Amino acid sequence: MTVPSDRVVATKHRRSTTRRHNLTGWLFVGPFGLIFLALLVLPIGYAFYLSLFQKSLIGGTRFVLFGNYLKAFSDPSFLSGVGFVLSFSLVLIPLQMAISSRSRSSSISSSRGSRVSRAS
């Protein structure tokens, strides 16, 4: 019978430490993953599933595949709304970024003598 060398013992210790670190990481990330899945991914998936069907009072529910999307993207008022949202976003987002950047830089320059630590 042979006695385990120091290298084998060190390898086993390293494996158990790595496994413990991995488990700790998963325990921290796990709750976020469950909440993200339950409150974002599953509802979006269910909404997409529902969008593949058409409900009516008389005919019931029928599977139309991408018929609802074809109808939406051929509707001029829907396309007008999408265009408005895109143009609004293209103007407003850069404007807000510029204002917040100016606001941050002016607050940093006005507080040079303060003892408050800040990240740059």
UniProtKB/TrEMBL annotation:
Acyltransferase as UniProt keyword: no
Keyword Cell membrane belongs to the record: yes
Entry membrane topology: Multi-pass membrane protein
Cellular compartments annotated: Cell membrane
Annotated stretches, region: Disordered: 99-120
Membrane-crossing residue ranges in chain numbering: 23-49, 78-99
InterPro entries xref list: MetI-like_sf, UgpAE/MalFG_permease
Keywords: Cell membrane, Membrane, Transmembrane, Transmembrane helix, Transport
Biased composition range(s): Low complexity: 100-120
PANTHER family: BLL4140 PROTEIN, DIACETYLCHITOBIOSE UPTAKE SYSTEM PERMEASE PROTEIN DASB
Name of the protein in question: Uncharacterized protein
Taxonomic lineage from the root: Bacteria, Bacillati, Actinomycetota, Actinomycetes, Micrococcales
